[in-house]
Amino acid sequence: MYLTAEEALKYGLIDEIIDAEPEEVESEIFENKAKAFNNKISAAFAPKQPISASEKGAEDNVGNSNHSN
């Protein structure tokens, strides 16, 4: 014979019935915080985006107009 969770609670065999959704344990919380921290550091030290060809061309034109004077 098997007891349901409600019966086990009624007879004092268990303290409470936990929801079907498991709670996050400390190691998972620490792991998630560590990943977020590492992502922040990586983003801070990531190389800047290279200048696109169109922006570089505009930059060269500005530089050339100054040198022709």
Keywords:
69 residues; mainly alpha; 3 helices
What order do the helices and strands come in, and which of them pair?
Elements: H1 5-10, H2 26-45, H3 53-67
Mind explaining what this structure looks like?
With 69 residues, the chain is mainly α. It is 59% helix and 0% strand. The protein is built from 3 helices and no strands. The protein is rod-shaped and about 75 Å long. The mean pLDDT is 77.
Report the span from N to C terminus: 98 Å
What kind of oligomer do you see?
A: single chain
Q: Write the element-wise H/E pattern from the N-terminal end onward.
A: HHH
**Structural class label:** mainly alpha
Strand content: under 5%
Q: How would you sum up this structure in a few lines?
A:
The chain is an all-alpha fold. The protein has helices spanning 5-10, 26-45, 53-67.
